[in-house]
Write a structure and sequence with these properties.
Blueprint: H1 11-14, H2 33-36, H3 46-50, H4 68-80, H5 91-100, H6 105-116, E1 124-128, E2 131-133, E3 135-136, E4 143-144, E5 150-152, E6 158-161, H7 164-168, E7 176-180, H8 184-194, H9 204-207, H10 225-237, H11 248-252, H12 257-269
Parallel strand pairs: 1-7
Antiparallel strand pairs: 2-5, 3-4, 6-7
Amino acid sequence: MLPGSTAAFSWKQARDLFAALDWHPDAHPAMPDIVANGRKPDIRACGSCHRVEGTGGPENASLAGLPVDYFVQQIADFKSGARTMSGPQRISTQVMMASVRSMTDADISAAADYFSALKRKRVIKVVETDMIPKTGPSRLFYVRSPEGGLEPLGRRIVEMPDDVVQFELRDSRATFTAYVPLGSLAKGEALAKTGGSGVTAACGLCHGPDLKGVDTVPGIAGRSPTYIMRQLYEFQHGSRAGAASALMKPTVEKLSQDDMIALAAYVSSLDP
């Protein structure tokens, strides 16, 4: 059991990607079967990885509140190969790509309608620092080392669950702390609001003045900075090449790694 929930699940159930753990059943509409259970042998339950309330984690995407048309297009891009991976193969993306191949139009529509209706939650705190808690071994995300101590952050984003057990048990209310380099928020704000004198374009031109999305353009405020960083890299390196991605290509082509870190840090710090 977890605080604030009367539900109970085993670790075996938590590892079963064909069943979404519903810790707070009164906090969301009824889940369609594709979200709650998927369909064996290929389609994992959407809610198992992305969480029942669509909050996701550093290893994947938050789906809550995504426009239906945008959601549907991303599934189509995964299916067609227009959305893949530029760097080393990541197991979470491999699972996603395997799952979408067998999804029907009805499956996609049901999942899109469900997640679109969910309200986005603020689950990430962004902290500027040069030293962070020492990181320990993990699978798809950083965790604090059981030995304690500190280590230099360097030029990176380190996003950690505040309660590893809560996160591993796939609770939608798990929260995260994202450590970013000193000065990232101010630099990211300047890039996001002005484009940085031609380095990029102001994010609000497409994502809206508060970066919460406009029509079929998704909101980016308050999203995982780890996720945002990956997507900027994928856009820049051509692994997100769907029709809807065309506007992003010129936006990211001049960004340095430090620019991407700053943008991800700032955007993540905003209220979703």
